[in-house]
Amino acid sequence: MQNNCKPIILVDADACPVKEEISRISHTYKVDVCYVASYSHVMTNKTEGNWVYVDDEKESADLYILNHAKKDDVVVTQDIGLASMLVSKNVYVLTPRGKQYEESEMELSLHMRFLSAKERRKGNYSKGPKAFSTKDRERFVQSLKKTLSKIAGIPE
Hints:
It contains five helices and six strands; from the N terminus they run βαββαβαββαα. By secondary structure, it is α/β, with parallel strands linked by helices.
């Protein structure tokens, strides 16, 4: 699955809405993809790429990705906690909405996540995230292409 030198894309696949885009772009850049999902999300109509299934425990996919991601790999996840651990390993982390996490912003992001969780425990719930849009999908495609070009040394 993973070559020690060549970067790969690892995808936190259980709720990832951009698997088809990842598959298509990875072919263009000749980058291997590893989709990580829990057994409860086994896909019968799988997106092309390597699929790894992990236990249904809450953090199993995150732990797999954390243990297998290496410098210059790309990880697609919505999990801020996972992202904070990966950026410190010089892994590129993108959300399905196309945001790239930077190490310099992780402390603030984790603090905001903590405050939101604290409010939810008090019974105060926000509206939640906006619906995933075509603009989000387009932003992700551009962000992934830009990141893979940077890794490949291709000028923008």
